Amino acid sequence: MCHNSHMPFASPEITEPVDLCLDGGVLNPAAVGWSRHPLHRCNLSGRWPRKKRWDYWCVMSPVFAFSVTVASIDYLGIAGVYLLDFHENRCDEAVRATPASRGIHPGERVGEPVRFAEGATRIEIEDSGTEVRMNVHWPGLARQGLTADIIVRHPHGHETLNVVVPWDMRRFQFTSKQMALPAAGSIRLGAHTYDLPESESFAVLDFGRGIWPWRTRWNWASCTTRSGDGVIGLNFGGQWTDRTGATENGICRNGRLSKIQESVCFQYDSADFMKPWRIRSEDSEDVDLSFVPFYERKLKTHLIVAASSVHQMFGRFNGRVRAEGEEIIIVDGLGWAEEHVARW
């Protein structure tokens, strides 16, 4: 989907800690921009029920993907997990919702503890600064029960993509996309254990804090792969950033971020999401990727007044991207691309 998202300026790089909001919960103009490390304190206040806070992790090996979400949308808390087995073409998934976000206490900064507990179901995510320890216990998932013990490493100096997207002074979002983080550990579903070999397994974090419109639509694509002697993480977004002057587009190569200020187009058939996609930069040849899905994860939810429709496609990326003027060839890069429509 290509939209006119051109703006007359480029989003500035932020290098010092900054508060996302001023007194009264409006956007701090000094917070608008992007950074290589998470420097924003997301001090949201007021504006009930428009505040949205979430931590979404997805850990992938060559043969499966495992995801954990803990979110608060003011009037509702959401916790969810899924395990997608690529070989068996099966996704086991569960979601819990709690009124008024009971039991969910999202932090203001990336790296603060993430916890959810309801009965015997629990999610605990702790960040020591050098690694993230993720423990999940979800009895009854797929009638078998799931436990996970995962470690995600923060390599020294590893850069991430941190962006403030300003719709206006009262509606805005801070997003931290952390790509290509080495992962290890295991997930047990019933009698089956899924291991994460560290040299082949990587995690992605989507940390979001903001004040959102009632209706939104976005595209998101993520890929971690190897190219030559490099580990490459790709992150691209579309639609939700249109006409804001901000993008969440970037390339992480061996821990070094190359920010892409230009918007990208997501081209796909919304009547058949399994058809090949194309993702390309609007005004240059810096991004030109094909994406061929092999699995469609569909999730439609209706929770009180909130509703969402997700088509998250897992598949392979091929093509080229350009970082700091150097072309990088992507061959069968494993990842996902999605369309998400929300009323929340």
Task: State the main characteristics.
single chain, 344 residues, mainly beta, 13-stranded antiparallel sheet, 0% helix
Weakly predicted, low-confidence segments: none
Helix and strand pattern: EEEEEEEEEEEEEEEEEEEEEEEE
Strand content: over 45%
Helical proportion, percent range: under 10%
Q: How many β-strands, per DSSP? A: 24
Q: SS-based structural class? A: mainly beta
N- to C-terminal distance: 22 Å
Rg, rounded, reads: 19 Å
Please tell me the overall pLDDT. Answer: 95
Number of helices: 0
Shape: globular
Largest sheet: 13 strands, antiparallel
Task: Explain this structure.
By secondary structure, the chain is mainly beta. The protein has no helices and 24 strands. It has strands at about 20, 35, 40, 50-60, 65-70, 75-85, 90-100, 115-120, 120-125, 130-140, 145-155, 160-170, 170-190, 190-195, 200-210, 215-225, 230-240, 250-255, 255-260, 265, 275-280, 285-305, 305-325, 325-344. Strands 2, 4, 5, 6, 7, 8, 9, 10, 11, 12, 13, 14 and 15 form a 13-stranded antiparallel sheet that branches. It has a 9-stranded antiparallel sheet with strand order 19-18-17-16-24-23-22-21-20, with no helix packed on it. A two-stranded parallel ribbon has the order 1-3. It is globular and about 50 Å long. The chain starts with 17 loop residues before the first strand and ends with a strand.
